[in-house]
Amino acid sequence: MASSGKKTRGRQKIDMKIIENENEKLVTFSKRRSGVYKKISELTILCGTDILFICFSPAGKPFSFGHPSIESVANRLFNNNTPPPTDNTHPLVEAQQKEKINEIIHYYNEASRQSDAAKEKEKLLAQQTSGREPNLWWEADIEKLSLRELEELDSRYTEHINRLYDTISKKVAATTDANEDRL
Question: Where are the alpha helices (DSSP H) in the chain?
């Protein structure tokens, strides 16, 4: 049986050293943060542990995870390690609650990632337009645009041309109708 060659290099070992590029650092933090949250959540489910995890992004934004809650674990930590009161919640209900918590964490991380990406784009646009008149989208220096930005610009041009043709067609039709009514 002939085997076809590998098309990808697969999972590669990454050298553990500080990432110098700020954008790469933020992206790596966002991706790995969600992985850490997943592992912490699994640890709470498998071992029934109380966990408090706090970290700060490279941009200085705090992120936290606590089970059963941040407050209860922090109170336990600062009040002589007194164990929490016993909870007689049915295991199925508790599993459903934990699943819901994981879902909420996932949505929060996704919203946070999108928010961070929007802020980065806004920051980049502000840097590009600082000290000069803001450019209109059709005045963009296309040589400096990325492929994605060029495709977006092309989409805008196409949309603009289609609206232009529609408007012209409507005006021509209206003019033709008006001329026919006069005859």
Answer: 22-47, 70-78, 91-129, 147-182
22, burial (CB in 10 Å: exposed 0-12, middle 13-18, buried 19+): exposed
pLDDT digit string, tens, across residues 120-179: 888 887 777 665 554 566 677 788 888 888 888 888 889 989 999 999 988 888 887 766
3-state DSSP assignment of residue 89: coil
Structural tokens at position 100? 């819901």
Give yes or no for a contact between 73 and 51, defined as CB atoms under 8 angstroms apart.
yes
Distance CA 98, CA 45 (A): 8
Geometric angle at alpha carbon 89, from 87 and 90, rounded to 5°: 145
> Quick check: 157 and 140 in contact, CB under 8 A?
no
Angstrom distance (rounded) from CA 142 to CA 181: 48
As a whole number of Å, the end-to-end CA separation of the chain is 82
Q: Can you give the pTM of this predicted structure? A: 0.39
